[in-house]
Amino acid sequence: xxxAAIQTSPILYEVAANTDRLLALAEEAFRGGAxxxxxxxxxxxxxxxxxxxxxxxxxxxxxxxTTERFAKLCHRHGGVLVLGLAxxxxxxxxxxxxxAAIGAQGVLGKYRKIHGFVSEPxxxxxxxxxxxxxxxxxxxxxxxxxxxxxxxxxxRMLQALGADVIAFSANWPTAPLPSPIWWVRAxxxxxxxxxxxxxxxxxGVRFSGGSAIFxxxxxxxxxxxTGEGVISAEIGAKSRRSPLPAAESLLPLSLSPYLYDPHxxxxxxxxxxxxxxxVTEVHALPFHGHVRDLERAIGARGGLILLPEFALGxxxxxxxxxxxxxxxxxxxxxxxxxxxxxxxxxxxxxxxSVLLLVAPDGLLLRRVRPASxxxxxxDPSVVDWGGMRIGLLFGGELEPxxxxxxxxxxxxxxxxxxxxxHERASVPxxxxxxxxxxxxxxxxxxPKARAMx
Length: 453
Description:
This protein is α/β, with parallel strands linked by helices.
């Protein structure tokens, strides 16, 4: 299927003129062979409303007069268009930042934005339709609206609902663009993502453009950095790179402790469970060898020392034993440090990779690689040491979004990720080198982008 994204600069309140311009750009996209066209968030009206009375000048029902104009265009070309606009519910008169998926016969489905940005609570009610995937003649289209992309559970739910492609409408003001967060959401779900962002300045806010189309493997298929226009690309079938975890492991993701000061929410009702916090050194050391060589390799380094998976022995070499752990604890005690390192051990199912976190008092945490490192444990692996809370992950657990987020929700201050070199823990964007050669920085980097969310 060929998909297209429209990048435009709407004028605040000018619904008719903005719609005319969108229709012309959508016509261009359809004539260029696009079957699915995505327009930006609030593309018909502009975005920066002071309050509900201000937004009242532009809201309209869905279906309504604007969606009818686009339906006629879709009818002529046999395509589907996804559009962001300000909606008024005819029954409740509530206002929503909404998206409509439009086909030849009219509105096929709509979505109301769930995660409002800082200005939207002044005029828009939180979305009440949940995540939405719309059945269309060109496939199952998942709808995603700007700030929603910051929440990985949104795209995971669209994946669970069977989306073939994600239509992402945005009014995104920050650089660098295309945003690495957009790329992460395509990569972790294995679903192509069509990102349509606006440009221009409105009430002192400058919107950045950078509209892009990402393939199911995260490849950057097309982009438009600046100016109005249309981009398009062929998007292949979805590939389930990251299997969905068991439903019960996702339940903590429905909680929202980040809305409050963590020292308040974790200590509620007198339960003191969060460390005070500290500043410490963290060293990632590419060591592979015997425990007897470890002290010399660490040298004068202090704080937290992270070694790779299998740093202390591959299967076929002696497994990690109690004597090894005691020696690591001795090193930690002598230097006042903690060491996270990987080795292997025998289990009922045969040899298994194991990660250890050892401190002066001995073993703090032991993790055995899950049957599939792509699936998170319902219980995040975190432990307190030295005034901080530490999370411990295998390299392959960076590919799916849940493990790191579960550790964050459990109050982790730092994540130590021990990788074997085969898990591609530090996953760059497929086109990162080309992007860098064109003068861009290396911002398509999975751990870095994850840290932003």
